[in-house]
Amino acid sequence: MxxxxxxxxxxxxxxxxxxxxxxxxxxxxxxxxxxxxKKVPTLRGKTIINAFFEAxxxxxxxxxxAGKRLSADTVNISGxxxxxxxxxxxxxxxxxxxxxAPDIIVIRHGHSGxxxxxxxxxxxSVVNAGDGAHEHPSQALLDLMTMREHKGSxxxxxxxxxxxxxxxxxxxxxxxxxxxxxxxxxxxGPGTMMPIGIxxxxxxxxxxxxxxAIEGADVVMMLRIQxxxxxxxxxxxxxxxxxxxxxxxxxxxxxxxxxxxxxxxPMNRGVEISSAVADGxxxxxxxxxxxxxxxxxxxxxxxxxxxxxxxxx
Length: 313
Ligand code: CP
What we know:
alpha/beta; Rossmann fold; 2 domains; 11 helices; binds phosphoric acid mono(formamide)ester
């Protein structure tokens, strides 16, 4: 088994074996992050450009940390500090980045398909760090790594994903990844935030009542409402949303007693998740963040095509 992809544009293009390789590689890299000297020479001499045209805390930082821990030279550009604000097109930005001979471009962009567009115009590898409402592959992979750590296996898990499914790239990538690995996915949200035909993506059930969706679940994943991607008002008020779709200690009791609570962040406390749950004993939210670094190390290593992980310094 080997990873044959030059780019990571989405989970949709990945097989079960691809996902398995990424998770196993991330497991191997994780230990480096608890060493005193958190650096190995795996990607020495490689240049990684992190191009983030949308806001990010977790993804941008963890891609940067992942690159540095693998000894790559990492450079960051953001939408607000790049020449995009002066009217430069993505194509021209891509050609100019390409002229500086990077090995990997990690891109977050507000337009679905931007990483794919870029991958057809540059010679190096492109990694999607979130494109519009389309996909967020590295998030789904770190989610699966976290579920596997806590539950032993993904196969057979009942995973409830609750929130603004329509605008969530996390939901889309998680649906592809979870169903490919044998989990059963329950999607829940108001009808205005549930895309028609979402069941066609795989082994997915749709609910509008959070209590039914989380009953007996092994994993409850809460998503924030993506206000920035909504063109119409899709809910009466945040207070009402919290009442019907928020996770709190009372409705969480309906899930399995050992269920884990996940959130990709950023969280809106008091809206989709109460502080009591966000800080409670079942939450694994910071484990997700920790695993984000190892997952992104695995992705950078696998697309770079270098022969050996060189996990000794
Ligand atoms: N989960 C996630 O994508 O978070 P950021 O927007 O902070 O990167």
